[in-house]
Design goal:
Helix 11 packs antiparallel against helix 12 (494-511). The chain has a 10-stranded antiparallel sheet. The protein is globular. The protein has 4 domains: 11-264, Beta-galactosidase, Chain A, domain 5, CATH 2.70.98; 303-511, Glycosyltransferase, CATH 1.50.10.10; 512-653, no CATH class; 672-739, Maltose phosphorylase, domain 3. The protein contains 17 helices and 45 strands. Helices cover 28% and strands 30% of the residues.
Length: 746
């Protein structure tokens, strides 16, 4: 990662990539709130990336949860001679969150190429500025190739078998299977062809292929000429509502880059800033992860808001992934986005039993997209949302959280859904069965699902269909969160939910203990017998404080051994397990989220040096991958394997571990902040500016033994240390010093 190009650049806008030649295998991702562009370090919208063991082409334009195009490429050069691709002519490449700029040269010409994704349009924009260097001037040709794709991204490589194509005065329009896009150019093309023939003036069915366009230009010596393009679209029903939308975007082309930078500046101005003078790599990683999380925020259409799971092949709203990202969004103070995301989750909560999409009453969807794609049937998704709803109220305040009052029955329906999945033998939550029901519902019909899974938890490629330990933790959170949220709004049942959550905790503590390994078994079978597999999932119970410190430390220290923890992250299964496979998705690969879990557990167990080592591992990945964070890595060597190049599960929990683990922050009730910093030995100071808590903004400064808390604006805040009984009131404009009791040794 290169350094700043200017001292005036804020750290969020420093170049993520600044090289003469990055190469065609380096992923580049640009996003807005309704669209994304996938490019390569060759500066064009084309990228080969591994998917399920094979390299596939993922470059192009994505909007409203739909992959609009495959590669969208440019070539240019002197007319009548061989044209050069952008990669062949590339001389300098700069990638920022706000866009890509590349410089190109060829015989007698130079060019500046820019790609910007607008903040709130389902579009990607491009500009090519060409200058003639030859004294005689130059006759230039710009060639363009666009591959229509037009299908929501659910299964890799799946696309329609025919398209409806027509020419327009400045480009072309295409649609298929309920999706559509239009290419708009600032200048009408000299030629536009498909399959060697001119584009039809009226819609015509065509097979998959490439639309080829060209612009012939004549430049005087030293003259510069600009060509601009807008490619926009999404769900066809939405595109038809605004037929002139592309032209309106084109009309603002002089301010594309400036508008995008301003929207980013406005968002970053509201975010907290972390300072770790003894670990500056964590500061940089926090900025990179924050930017990555913001890049996943998508609002495909009104009433459909969230964070897409990742790129390239998970660019829809996957609510189990969102559940791991929302805590970070709340710590970052983006309450508006968190509220809209919760509203979307409950908007699409199932009201009926629909086996064809594995939906049960009360279930939160697995995946939502305007495509449309609505798929339910995950054992873990629904369990998250009662606790997330309560967390929102705690962070944002009861007034801002009042929208949840009418949703209390739906929050309760999540718990009722879980109650129907309790085992009569063990009393524990039982996961699995969704895929079997889907298969039975579609047997003999035309609906086919392109995956073979035994289960639909987050670990959906391995059989954990009985009583997985992480599901029990999520069940306890759901019970407690639903009851606590009801209590906030004066409803009954809070004591029962808290009691039931404690019963789940006690069962896990008693039944999942694995003394021989100083660890916890991963699951129990249907009869309640331990299944002794060593996975990182057990660490979630440690993060939730379910064990005394001595026991928690033993569990974390066992996880830190090299059979589970590698120098590049934590494996999904111990290397000593007979079923270990370093290339298996959930039976040996290294997952970034598992590394984040380990960090969080280590801090909660009072092992800050161990927690810091895990955070530094993820920090190195974020820096080396230029602000992206891969989904997973090979279990035996430090390289991405069978992986999205950015996954929300990787960046969200990392940020949460910084706030809740290293800083030890928690919000037990609205307007109260509890501190339990876990700064390593030898650290002298750490800081956090403009943390949002309800309508208040706080600055925190840690030095050994105390935290100075300043409420810079908003209502007063109550602040205390986790191990102390009392809290201190900090009025607006005041600073108070909070003493930190010495951490217990056991």
């Amino acid at each position: 990662m290169s350094g700043p190009s200017s001292d005036a650049d804020p750290d969020w806008d420093l170049p993520l990539l600044e090289e003469d030649r990055a190469g065609p295998t380096t992923p580049v991702l640009l996003t807005g709130h309704r669209a994304a562009a996938i490019l390569s370090g060759g500066s064009d919208l084309a990228l080969e990336w591994e998917a399920r063991g094979a390299r596939m082409e993922w470059g192009g334009v994505y909007a409203q949860g739909i992959r609009l195009t495959g590669p969208w490429t440019l070539q240019l050069g002197e007319r009548g001679k061989t044209l050069l691709s952008l990669e062949q002519s590339l001389r300098k490449l700069t990638v920022r969150r706000t866009g890509l700029v590349s410089l190109h040269t060829g015989p007698g010409w130079s060019a500046r190429h820019e790609v910007v994704v607008p903040h709130d349009d389902p579009a990607v924009t491009r500009r090519l500025s060409i200058t003639a260097l030859a004294e005689r001037g130059l006759k230039v040709r710009v060639g363009m190739s666009v591959e229509p794709f037009l299908l929501p991204v659910l299964m890799e490589g799946l696309k329609p078998h025919s398209y409806s194509l027509r020419s327009t005065p400045t480009g072309f329009a295409v649609s298929a299977e309920g999706s559509a896009f239009e290419l708009v150019s600032s200048e009408s093309p000299t030629s536009a062809q498909f399959g060697g023939s001119s584009l039809p003036a009226e819609p015509k069915a065509v097979p998959p292929g490439h639309v080829e366009l060209a612009w012939d230009l004549t430049l005087d010596p030293a003259e510069r000429l600009d060509l601009s393009w807008v490619l926009w679209g999404g769900a066809e029903r939405l595109v038809r509502r605004e037929p002139d939308h592309g032209q309106r975007i084109m009309g603002g082309r002089e301010s594309w880059a400036m508008d995008r930078r301003q929207s980013q500046a406005d968002w970053w101005a509201e975010r907290p800033r972390l300072s770790f003078p003894q670990a500056p790599e964590l500061e940089r990683a926090a900025v990179l992860a924050t930017g990555a999380l913001e890049g996943l925020m998508q609002a495909p259409e009104p009433g459909m808001v969230g964070l897409v799971a990742g790129y390239p092949w998970y660019c829809a709203l996957w609510f189990r992934d969102i559940a791991w990202m929302l805590p970070a969004a709340l710590w970052l103070g983006d309450f508006d986005w968190a509220r809209a995301t919760l509203g979307t989750a409950f908007r699409f909560q199932s009201r009926a039993h629909l086996p064809v999409i594995a939906a049960e009453i009360g279930e939160i969807p697995m995946q939502v997209s305007p495509g449309p794609i609505f798929l339910y049937g995950t054992s873990d998704t629904t369990l998250h949302f009662p606790a997330l709803a309560h967390r929102f109220v705690r962070h944002a305040g009861a007034e801002r959280g009042s929208f949840l009052r009418p949703l209390l029955p739906q929050v309760g329906a999540c718990v009722e859904w879980a109650d129907r999945k309790l085992s009569p033998r063990t009393g524990l939550f039982t996961n699995g069965g969704e895929i079997a029901e889907m298969a039975q519902a579609t047997q003999g019909g035309k609906v086919q699902y392109g995956f073979d899974a035994k289960d639909t938890t987050i670990w959906d490629s391995t059989d954990r269909r009985s009583h997985a330990i992480d599901l029990q933790v999520l069940h306890a959170r759901a019970l407690e969160g639903s009851a606590a949220l009801a209590a906030v709004f004066g409803q009954s049942g809070s004591n029962d939910g808290a009691r039931r959550a404690l019963e789940v905790q006690q069962k896990v503590v008693e039944r999942y203990d694995w003394p021989q390994q100083s660890y916890l078994v991963d699951t129990l079978d249907e009869e309640g017998r331990p299944v002794p597999r060593l996975r990182p999932n057990a660490l979630i119970s440690v993060s939730d404080g379910w064990f005394p410190r001595a026991k928690a430390r033993a569990i974390v220290q066992r996880a830190a051994r090299p059979d589970l923890t590698t120098p590049w992250g934590v494996r999904t299964l111990s290397e000593t397990d007979p079923g270990f496979d370093p290339e298996a998705y959930h039976d040996g690969q290294v997952w970034t989220i598992a590394t984040d879990w380990a960090a969080q557990a280590a801090f909660r167990a009072g092992l800050p040096e161990v927690g810091l080592s895990y955070l530094r591992t993820v920090s190195r990945l974020l820096e080396s991958e230029r602000g992206l964070a891969n989904e997973c890595y090979h279990g035996s060597r430090p390289e991405p394997f069978d992986s999205c190049f950015l996954l929300g599960l990787s960046v969200g929990p990392f940020l949460t571990a910084l706030f809740e683990g290293l800083w030890g922050l928690s919000v037990p009730v609205p307007g109260t902040l509890v501190l339990d910093p876990q700064m390593p030995q030898g650290w002298k100071q750490a800081g956090m500016d403009q943390l949002r808590l309800g309508a208040s903004r706080l600055d925190l400064q840690w030095t050994p033994g105390k935290v100075e808390v300043q409420v810079r604006e908003g209502p007063e805040v109550r602040v205390g240390a986790r191990s102390a009984d009392e809290t201190v009131v900090v009025p607006a404009g005041s600073t108070r010093s909070i003493a930190l009791p010495e951490a217990p040794s056991s």
